[in-house]
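Tokens for chain A. Residues wanted.
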């Protein structure tokens, strides 16, 4: 499953209700911004409520941050995108941040154990 922040769904109640129904299934959520298609969303801050809402529904254990790099660079740099992600979850615990940036992806892609020396 993929959550794409697009102008046609930002703050859209029907989109949010659909996501709420999906949380009851055994799904994982890739939280990303298709910034290459959205030059008007040059800053991640515009998407904070939708990103936080998605993480609240699916919990960090079932979410991971992603990007469509290098195409996403048409709208913002990789650093700006991921600094935006860090800012939106600044109040999260270290454990929750690790899940969003690392652990969930390891589980989904079967990479568990590859980060051990």
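Reply:
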């Amino acid at each position: 499953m993929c959550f794409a922040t697009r102008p046609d769904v930002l703050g859209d109640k029907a989109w949010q209700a659909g996501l709420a129904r999906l949380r009851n299934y055994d799904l994982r959520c890739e939280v990303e911004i298709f910034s290459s298609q959205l030059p008007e969303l040059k800053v991640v801050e515009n998407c904070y409520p939708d990103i936080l809402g998605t993480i609240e529904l699916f919990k960090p254990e079932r979410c991971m941050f992603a990007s469509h790099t290098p195409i996403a660079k048409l709208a913002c740099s990789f650093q700006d995108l991921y600094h935006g992600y860090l800012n939106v979850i600044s109040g999260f615990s270290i454990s929750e941040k690790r899940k969003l940036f690392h652990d969930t992806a390891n589980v989904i892609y079967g990479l568990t154990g590859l980060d051990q020396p």
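The two ends are 31 Å apart (CA to CA). The beta strands are 2-4, 29-32, 63-65.
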